Amino acid sequence: MSVVGSTGSIGTQTIDVINSDPASFHVVAIGAATSVDLLAAQALELRPDRVALADPRRATELEERLPAGTELLVGPEALAEIAKSADVVVNGVVGFAGLPVTLAALLAGRRLALANKESLIAGGPVVQVARATAGAEIVPVDSEHCAIHQCLRALLGEKDMARMPHPPSMPLRRIVLTASGGPFRGRSQRSLAEVTVQDALAHPTWTMGPKITIDSSTLMNKGLEVIEAHELFGIGYDSIEVVVHPQSIVHSMIETTDGATLAQLSLPDMRLPIGYALAYPDRLQVAFGAIDWTQLPPIEFEPPDRATFPCLDLAYRAGREGGAAPAWLNGANEVAVAAFLDGRIRWIDIPAVISAALDECSAPVPSTVDDVLESDRAGREFARVAVDRLARASL
Ligand SMILES: NC(=O)c1ccc[n+]([C@@H]2O[C@H](COP(=O)([O-])OP(=O)(O)OC[C@H]3O[C@@H](n4cnc5c(N)ncnc54)[C@H](OP(=O)(O)O)[C@@H]3O)[C@@H](O)[C@H]2O)c1
Q: Is 54 close to ligand 1, i.e. is its CB under 6 Å away?
């Protein structure tokens, strides 16, 4: 295994899974951006051959703390480098910065356990080309897509799963992604005008890194997941629906043409989907998400409030537009979320920033990595203009 983003929420839970069955898994590389203390501790515990550090500023300090014989790779290319040589590469980097890791793993013909949805959303057409490399495959780590993967696998079998995103004709009416609704479910738009960063970071069912937690509060995370589902499984946007399910027990479902629904249920514990991707096509022997049915509270479903959480429809719009729009959406969202976390804009300004950037998008389908980088850059630039305007207006 190569665990990229090993110091984050996904990365540390991946190491938990690996430690739960040390006879089955061997870590050959770990990597992160800046967290030198945790990387050094992980290297002492796991004894990987290689450690990668994207930010060079504390490289000397890290090198001194690594076990003898461990190779240190430093700089922006280091994380992609450690994605080339492992049977399974976990991409737990946050944001668009994960794109080189996704591409490197797929172009090297590896299995990619993909948590970093942003690389697939922004780089869709280019990632799909890399995914066609002999031996390459994506097994999703996002809990919803892991659930859909399990349901489709039950419907189609493993051989046809390997043909994604060009599956044979499937007897499928729709897939339904579940959303917890985040910390602001049931609130009116007016009551959300003054919410704080701390309010938005208080997710009711999942403990995750700050970026995805803010995305969950705006429902942009679900919007990004709609595009992710389209890219992963080749399913049209009209056949991807979202339903709010506050308990996060049903992780998503598929509905077949005869009206049957297949769903995957487990407790909200990311170690289950991580373990699924690591062990695929086998199954982990440790039951991280097992349910005690006698203790389960009632499970509920309701439609998403699209007026209060417009980010969901912004993502549908970008997905349907295609071309560079998903990359612009993703770049603009990263700028808006960072500006909210920095206290420059209000939570309710996030969709306005993204919408302003999307309105300017006219670029064609990205066909090279440079096209993707340019689309991301342009989306960010228009979003920064919108952030500056909103920040000035609030002075
Ligand atoms: N957390 C979850 O439960 C969950 C669930 C589903 C999907 N995901 C997806 O998984 C990904 C990771 O999320 P997370 O919650 O684990 O994030 P996180 O806790 O913030 O961790 C992010 C990881 O990425 C590294 N990183 C940050 N900026 C980087 C950069 N510019 N270049 C390279 N590496 C960088 C961090 O290294 P440092 O520590 O050194 O900064 C850290 O290892 C996201 O795409 C998210 O949407 C997460």
A: yes
